[in-house]
Amino acid sequence: MSAFFRTVSQRLTHNAIQRLLLKRFALAAGTYALALLLLWLAYFTGHFPVSLRSVTVGSMLVVASQAALFAVFYSGANLRFGDPSLTEAQVLLGVCWQTWFIAHLDHARGVFLVFYMLILLFGLFHLSRKAFVRCAAIVFFSFSAITLWDGYHFQLPDPTLAALQVCVLLIVLLWLVLYARYVQASRQRMRQRRFALQAHQDTLRGMMRQLEDLVATDELTGLFNRRHFLRLASRELSAMQPDVKHGLALIDLDHFKRINDVHGHAAGDQVLQAFAGVATACLRDGDVLARYGGEEFVVLLPDCNADRLTSCCERLRLAFTDVQLIGLDVGNLSLSAGMTLLELDDDLDNALHRADQALYRAKRDGRNRCAAAWESVDA
Predict the structure, then answer these.
(1) I need a labelling partner for 309 at 20 to 30 A (CA). Which of 96, 136, 271, 302 fits?
(2) Residue 47: which residues within 8 A CB-CB, separation 6 or more?
(3) What DSSP element (H or E) covers 335?
(4) Contact in structure between 167 and 197 (CB atoms under 8 Å)
(5) Which residue among 236, 295, 314, 375 is the active-site one?
(6) Is residue 88 annotated as part of the catalytic site, yes or no?
(7) Which domains occur in the chain, in start order?
């Protein structure tokens, strides 16, 4: 069952990651759409001196590349890679298309250099430091190669302007690399602080659980204490369904004061711990056992009838009489129990009072016995 929930959790996590990656891809695809719009604008204004067929084929190839990327993300194939966002691949693809576009421009090259910056900004928060430097270097050498190629073939309209563009691009790229390094260092510090905060939160949760256990548990016997039992019993009462009854029993260890007086409090503590072990073994999962105070204990048996409650208390009584304490002879151990049943809309205090009266009757009739509240009512 735990493996099933772990699988479901992992699937939900992967789905959340995929939705986030698809949103990032949609942002990139929207940027491509704007770039294509500017491409056609440059063509119609005469700044992109290529044929209509070349512009159309180039636009279709851009759309096809984005459709292929969308298919990869939509199918989940991207999760097989070390970087499911495929950020570096998308950045390099964008650099290739931008370089092709700029290679066919003349005077407007400087205007469209800004798209190189947009492409690199897409990877600013997701690329590693080396990957970002690698992409920035590819941008610089791509644009420089275009400029040198055109200069070698004497196709530069203004060589000094082209050199200035290369220098501006170099400075901007250097600034972006330094800024990316600062951003990534800041993110690393934030990640470390988040991990440290998570560790502190886990520690605090553990301490809170320990405090809750201390508040709810009797230190000597390891059973629930009275306060926690009353809280649990009240919760069970409020959640009761019609035609369902709960069993309640108050248990008192017989002659416990004599054991303390004759053998000492250490012996009394050993007797209490022995009873806690025996009672825990006799009860089923879901039954509530608590130390009510001193040598008195209380048991709540959810979804129980009179026969089962009586059988449980008798089994516990007989098991306790068979207890042999190691290194200690306190005589025959025994207990007395007072039993009652809880019904819908019953009052917990009244039920405890009925069980206490039944316990008093068991003590009065000679101890080492179980008395039921309903027997006195029937009588």
Answers:
(1) 271
(2) 105, 106, 107, 108
(3) strand 335-342
(4) no
(5) 295
(6) no
(7) 2-200 (no CATH), 226-378 (3.30.70.270)
